[in-house]
Specification:
Number of domains: 4
Number of helices: 30
Distance between the termini: 74 Å
Oligomer: single chain
CATH class of the largest domain: Mainly Alpha
CATH architecture of the largest domain: Up-down Bundle
Bound molecules: adenosine-5'-triphosphate, magnesium ion
Shape: elongated
Strand content: 15-25%
Number of strands: 23
Largest sheet: 8 strands, mixed
Radius of gyration: 34 Å
């Protein structure tokens, strides 16, 4: 096969792959209906590249490292260094360059290492496909597929690449991704005209669309960026509605940037106006901007997130989208479907009875035939029916099928035996009963009209079963003409009701403590199910989940967005909702300002998994759900989730420490610096001193992602609230400015300080206060009662020692420092202590106010 390669990568596109015969296409692709050999596939993979819709920009670490020098801030610093060199100030130039190199390198290594580990985890859950290689069926990562590969598809599969059908049975595909049309489209083998577009090609399936029902064998003709979805992948990449955390971070970044630009411009203008030396003023402003920018934020974010992801992995939760770690931590509403999460999902068929409530073998037979012949994704109820091996197809064969969908909630198969044809329908009783006009008795020997009285009796029986916690399916049938070939939804009318099948799906015992833990941890749990209200109520009761209000799909239909938001807030149980309604509920809750998680594993859960702030699925879920989820639980167990939530909160807590640090002490210092520079006849700190200060400060904060978080901070979902951050910033900014003013007074009035002394003293004081305050900010407790991690202690104390020893060394002179008189040192130490004490008090007052709901 190796010698029959397609002549060039563009060859498969010469003619649309859906026109002409399938044989011709196979020949063109150098393949056969039994697929490629592994060696050939390997060779093609090298030629065509990986099968991922977006061009993978796998960059070498060197390139990634160099790319950091494109950051605006780094560029400005480089310019500053060059400018100093040009004016002959080689010391400054080399110091700036060294500082720059150091901080970029640190940042790079931290981030790179953590990112690598998280990437490996994601690989574990990468999508896979069933493919024929060397004539045998294998499961391989979808990214390794090449044109010419033959893949096998079934209900629930995600189509791995653009492919032409070679064989198909009742194949229905959802290609809303391409066409926007959410109804399943039927696909079948055959030839399409050459001028048909991809969306009209009924004999081809496209990457990232999903199989609703049926099975198929198909040959891949385009992979990766050459697929239809690859062409629009760029716009898809931007699609995900930003989650709570991402949005807040963006707003925060913007706020700081505005402040920085404003401050720097004002300083620059004042200096120029006062006819200070231009270059010095420029350098000073640049250094200020550098000092103000939370340049470590991206590193802190990615390192805390990757660490969070790794720790979650050890607790059996795989993170697909890194920022979902934060979203999980701040989640305050969890919506979950029922089967498999709250219940065991090992369903047993307990009863099969006719419309009068008598046990009935015919109901079992009809439902069995329906389940046996249907090709959609089998539900656990189908499995339970088919477990009755005593029933046999007994001469029946299938003619056609109207596959299951979550709007109709029923499935029909058209069967034939000895020349007569029967449409057998099974589904949710609410959907089936209105379609029935008759019911049967005595194992189908007698039939009666389903009049009002009979209907009421049947309804009552169905309700009774629901009360007892049984999930119920109804079975009905209808004789069809012997020449009928195709069954349609419209044929599901004037049915004869055969009876009910009742199933038991026992609640999961492990779910009870997990639900309690979630509730205690400030996460409201809501059940969103396509199943019947009574059954869901029963499960909630068994699990001790108090149900405040119930909303059914039908009631929900009548509500507009505004009304739904209000109702959704008060409702615990949503029953008989369709997939689209599930995602409406999620959006409504998000609209109320909740951070919403959604846990589900079915085809019908995919839209909600997308719509939620954090979509959670399980490893055994259908491909579509796995693909849509941000997190995958390796064990179908709510307890695992609770641990993940804690990990998310820990991560969140550490990011908040960095943000509070950057916006309080650091910000306050830079503010005083800007102010002082406008009042003093000399610069309060030289540009290189500010840069050094900034570097040491960054060093001290490198260990923040490794820090411990107090258990009480993990107890409730943290709210990231920009207003609270701003208040914090204002309060601590003022406090630190007060002490800065005191320092200035001591220096200028008591010691009559000239520039070098002033600069040295303030460098030491500002760095020390700035760094030490982390031990106050990192906890809501008395700082002595909460243990920081060893790394944080080491990095902070290290930075402080360097800052306070440097002026007394020879190296200090390079930076323009001079040794301090001992008395001044003592006074400064006193100021530092006084500052820290007042910071502790202020911090306490701040949280006391916040927790008592004061604005
Ligand atoms: N294979 C099937 N044949 C007939 N009816 C079905 C089948 N699968 C599901 N149904 C009907 O559709 C309803 C909704 O399906 P399902 O229970 O899977 O939804 P769901 O929202 O995933 O529920 P859950 O929360 O229990 O997972 C079922 O209650 C049942 O009445
Ligand atoms: Mg489900």
């Amino acid at each position: 096969m190796g010698d029959r390669r397609p002549s060039s990568p563009s060859a498969p596109e010469a003619l649309p792959a859906w026109s002409g015969s399938a044989e011709a296409l196979l020949a063109r692709l150098g393949s056969s209906s039994s697929g490629l050999t592994s060696t050939e596939a390997q060779a093609r993979l090298e030629r065509y590249g990986p099968n991922t819709p977006e061009r993978r920009t796998r960059r070498f670490p060197v390139v990634e490292f160099l790319a950091r020098f494109r950051e605006p801030l780094v560029l400005v610093l480089l310019a500053a260094s060059v400018a100093s060199a040009l004016t002959g100030d080689l010391t400054s130039a080399s110091i700036i360059a060294t500082i720059l190199l150091l901080s970029v390198t640190l940042d790079f290594f931290q981030e790179h290492r953590a990112g690598d580990a998280a990437e490996k985890l994601r690989h574990m859950v990468a999508p896979r496909a069933r493919v024929l290689r060397d004539g045998t069926e294998q499961e391989l990562p979808s990214a390794t597929l090449v044109p010419g590969d033959v893949v096998l598809l079934e209900a629930g599969s995600l189509v791995p690449a653009d492919a032409r059908l070679l064989e198909s049975r009742d194949l229905y595909v959802n290609q809303a991704l391409l066409t926007g049309e959410s109804y399943p489209v039927e696909k079948a083998t055959g030839e399409a005209p050459p001028d048909a577009g991809p969306t009209e090609a009924r004999n081809a399936v496209f990457m990232s669309t999903s199989v609703i029902s049926g099975t198929a064998r198909a040959v891949i003709f385009n992979t990766g960026t050459r697929t239809s979805v690859g062409a629009i992948a760029h716009s898809l990449a931007q699609r995900a509605p930003s989650t709570a955390f991402e949005l807040e971070m963006r707003r925060f970044g913007l706020m700081l940037m505005r402040l920085t630009v404003l401050l720097v411009l004002v300083v620059l203008l004042v200096h120029v106006h006062a006819r200070r030396p231009l270059l010095e003023s420029f350098l000073f402003s640049v250094a200020l901007a550098v000092g103000l920018t939370p340049e470590l934020l991206p590193m802190i974010l990615s390192v805390t997130l990757s660490r969070g992801a790794l720790r979650m992995a050890s607790r059996h939760v795989i993170v697909k989208r890194l920022s979902a770690v934060h979203d999980l931590g701040s989640m305050d509403v969890l919506c979950t479907d029922k089967t498999g999460t709250l219940t065991e999902a090992c369903i047993r068929l307990e009863q099969h009875e006719d419309a009068t409530g008598r046990e009935c073998a015919r109901v079992l037979e009809l439902t069995w035939l329906n389940s046996h012949f249907e090709t959609g994704l089998r539900s656990p109820m189908d499995e339970a029916i088919l477990a009755h091996q005593e029933v046999q197809p007994a001469g029946w064969s299938k003619v056609d099928e109207v596959p299951f969908d979550f709007e109709r909630r029923r499935v029909s198969v058209l069967l034939e035996r000895e020349g007569h044809r029967l449409l057998v329908v099974k589904g949710a009783p609410e959907e089936l009963l209105p379609l029935c006009t008759h019911y049967e008795e005595d194992e189908g020997r007698t039939q009666h009209p389903l009049d009002a009285a009979a209907r009421a009796r049947v309804q009552a029986r169905f309700a009774e079963l629901g009360e007892q916690g049984f999930r119920v399916l109804a079975a009905a049938w209808r004789e069809e003409p012997p020449d009928m070939q195709v069954a349609r939804t419209g044929d599901e009318v004037e049915l004869t009701l055969a009876g009910f099948a009742a199933f038991l799906d026992p609640p999961k015992q492990s779910a009870r403590p997990a639900l309690e833990a979630l509730t205690r941890g400030g996460v409201q749990v809501k059940v969103v199910t396509g199943d019947d209200e009574r059954v869901a109520q029963h499960v909630c009761r068994e699990l001790g989940l108090p149900v405040k209000q119930v909303l059914t799909g039908r009631q929900l239909e009548a509500l507009d967005e505004q009304a739904l938001r209000v109702r959704a807030e008060q409702t615990t149980l949503f029953a008989r909702v369709s997939p689209a309604q599930k995602s409406r509920i999620i959006r409504a809750l998000r609209g109320r300002g909740h951070v919403v998680g959604y846990l589900g594993d079915g085809v019908n859960d995919a839209p909600s998994l997308h719509a939620a702030d954090v979509g959670i699925s399980v490893d055994g879920a259908v491909d579509v759900a796995r693909e849509a989820a941000d997190l995958l639980l390796l064990r179908q167990d709510l307890a695992v989730l609770q641990e993940g939530v804690e990990e998310g909160r820990r991560t969140f807590g550490n990011v908040m420490k960095y943000i509070r640090m950057g916006t309080s002490s650091n910000f306050g210092n830079m503010l005083s610096m800007a102010g002082a520079s406008m009042l003093l006849p000399f610069l309060p700190m030289l540009p290189i001193q500010i840069l050094l200060n900034n570097l040491l400060y960054d060093l001290s904060e490198l260990a923040i992602p490794l820090d411990e978080v107090d258990p009480e901070q993990l107890a409730q979902p943290p709210r990231w609230d920009l207003r609270s951050v701003q208040r914090f910033m204002a309060l601590f900014g003022v406090l630190s400015s007060l002490f800065d003013a005191a320092t200035f007074a001591v220096l200028l009035l008591l010691f009559k300080a000239e520039a070098p002394l002033f600069q040295t003293a303030w460098f030491m004081e500002s760095l020390t206060t700035q760094v030490l305050v982390i031990f106050i900010i990192r906890t809501h407790r008395n700082p002595l009662r909460s243990r920081p991690s060893g790394w944080l202690l080491l990095s902070s104390l290290g930075a402080i020692v360097v800052a306070n020893v440097l002026p007394f060394t020879a190296l200090g002179a390079w930076f323009g420092f001079i040794p301090l008189p001992p008395l001044l040192g003592l006074l400064l130490a006193g100021l530092v202590v006084a500052y820290l004490l007042s910071a502790v008090l202020l911090h306490r007052a701040f949280y006391w106010h916040q927790s008592h709901g004061c604005p």
